[in-house]
Design brief:
By secondary structure, this protein is α/β, with parallel strands linked by helices. The chain has a single domain, classed as Spore Coat Polysaccharide Biosynthesis Protein SpsA, Chain A, CATH 3.90.550. The chain has 8 helices and 14 strands. The strands form 3 sheets. It has a 9-stranded mixed beta sheet. Helix 7 runs parallel beside helix 8. The structure holds uridine-5'-diphosphate and manganese (II) ion (MN). The site of uridine-5'-diphosphate has 14 residues, from strand 3.
Length: 298
Amino acid sequence: MNPKPLFPTPDPLQRVLYRFWPSQRLNMDPLGDFCVEDRYFPITIANWKMISPVSCLMLARRVPQPLTFRADARLTIVIPFRDREAHLKELLPPLTARLAEQGVRYRILVVEQEPGRSFNRGKLINVGFHHAQADSDYYCIHDVDAIPVVADYRCPSQPLRLVTRLLSTNRPESICPTHYFSGAISVLKEQVFAVNGFSNEYWGWGKEDDEFLFRLQLAGFLCYFDSHGAYHDLPNPAAQQVAQPALRKPPHVRLNRARRSRLMRGLVDPSADGISTLGYDLLAEEVHEHYTKVRVRI
Ligand code: UDP
Ligand code: MN
């Protein structure tokens, strides 16, 4: 394997062109055509909105690892959660059905944030990683409103986004953009710990998922998506519809974007913010028939 011609860094002229003519950037990532089993494709780096020193670093560090699946690994499904009982009820039957069909050894861990502060999805996921560490070989980070229809929960050798097609949705798009890294993501435990998990600093809504993808790509992991993956996307409860397009974004959205941009400029060190610096209080642990719920103060 010769990694050299696979990962060219765009030359300066190209970078200026792509900055002002973003559509030209599509497919400039040489891994754009690579695929496994006609189904799993690498998440390309060049489609990112921002061309920055960090995205060039990601290209340079990436190693062409093929995607394979391992049998007999223990899965923990980590669901960040607050006030979505109706969604959880709707999710469990199809989720457990898919897992049973595929013969996956799993447990489902719902990590619930106590009322009070604004929601912190990344930190709750870190709690799940930490809490389930001893008996997991891999995790699936799962939104409670992502209902699996075609979904592959096997243990992947590389980080894998399971969602590509959104079958019912309150948003305009029904095919997820290639760089989207949310919904349902399977990752090996050692890969999660190699990147120190998620940032704990994204409060309110959004962008922590982008940062997690950056962390994995900066560490050299080739991330994939399942092009057959299809999910129903339940609409958020009215009180939680924070992602509405608005002319002026709410302050937490701007803060989170600014933070992600700082990471893109190489100004954030993932090892200083993540599972290694996680602090939380375990308030309760309830064992239900199909899942365990931990309630935490973060
Ligand atoms: N979530 C939750 N309660 C909240 C906000 C988020 O349980 O108040 C969890 C839930 O698992 C959800 C995920 O975080 O699926 C992503 O949040 P959300 O659905 O609000 O994101 P969006 O669909 O707007 O991207
Ligand atoms: Mn949602």
